[in-house]
Amino acid sequence: MTVVERREIALVDLLDRLLAGGVVIKGDITLRIADVDLVRIDLNALISSVNARVPSPFEESR
Amino acid sequence: MTGLRYVYAVCRPYGTPLQAQLTGVGGDPPRLLPHHGLVAVVSHVPEADFSEEPLRAHLEDLDWLTTVARAHQGVIDALTTVTTPLPLRLGTVFRDDSGVRTMMEEREESFLRTLDRLEGRVEWGVKVYVESERTPETSAAPAPKPASGRDYLRQRRMQTKSQDDLWQRAETFATRLHETLSGVAEDSRLHAPQNPTLSGASGRNVLNAAYLVPRVKSEEFVEKVDRTKDDVPGIRVELTGPWAAYSFAGEAATGKEGP
């Protein structure tokens, strides 16, 4: 069962669960963030940030 | 001590200590905060990073998010070896211990109910991909160069047709697989298909599902997935897990599709 042995967890699989799963609690701080932003950030912002990391000759790497 | 409280999970009290070297978000070891019949697992995190504005900004920084997500997962994973944790959404932060206790008090009943529902269960992730464009047949024997516009159009049509057939097969396959696995699982959730830019996986993700499975039935479940894997050419199945029951932590009704 080779599939199961692979322990390196892909970030996307993790984010599916950490950003869309888990109990949403109205914390002192995260009230708005947990309810709204995290869901809405979805993966769109992340995708653009991944795209932004594709090496560009015009930007210095970080 | 100053700092905010980052909460990973809520559990029932458990006997076995977490491994000593375990570090959580921000490098702070997870601590237990008991209240009545529940324990919250928390880290102390700096206000500079975790109060509302900085947190909001950080969440759009993939490197930061990755680090926090991995740390969060590390703690949940460790908890999974000693108990059945109820994971909270990433980035759940309180001002102080008493804020955490108040929250536990308010939601005690619902936490206990959910913990009962999840006790002894794990989550398995199953994804189905269609290897787009290139089916094994076409890649093995590349089409001859079209001699004319009409040839070109004919070739295009055949390619499109074979791609359509593949989609059709993939959809049937995914539907059937989902039905089969739902039969073994207690509950299931459909996540949005993953974007290939983020996953780096080849092919297009057509099913991204999570299944809640009793530990004792995990082997059976994994075998079922494994048996279907090479059934259809051009279609790939990936299994992840076992996870803590992240996708089933909400109180949503059975069968409701998330997120």
Automatic annotation (TrEMBL), chain A:
<keyword id="KW-0304">Gas vesicle</keyword>
<dbReference type="InterPro" id="IPR050530">
    <property type="entry name" value="GvpA"/>
</dbReference>
<dbReference type="InterPro" id="IPR000638">
    <property type="entry name" value="Gas-vesicle_GvpA-like"/>
</dbReference>
<protein>
    <submittedName>
        <fullName>Gas vesicle protein</fullName>
    </submittedName>
</protein>
<comment type="similarity">
    <text>Belongs to the gas vesicle GvpA family.</text>
</comment>
<dbReference type="Pfam" id="PF00741">
    <property type="entry name" value="Gas_vesicle"/>
</dbReference>
UniProtKB/TrEMBL annotation, chain B:
<keyword id="KW-0304">Gas vesicle</keyword>
<dbReference type="Pfam" id="PF06386">
    <property type="entry name" value="GvpL_GvpF"/>
</dbReference>
<protein>
    <submittedName>
        <fullName>GvpL/GvpF family gas vesicle protein</fullName>
    </submittedName>
</protein>
<dbReference type="InterPro" id="IPR009430">
    <property type="entry name" value="GvpL/GvpF"/>
</dbReference>
<comment type="similarity">
    <text>Belongs to the gas vesicle GvpF/GvpL family.</text>
</comment>
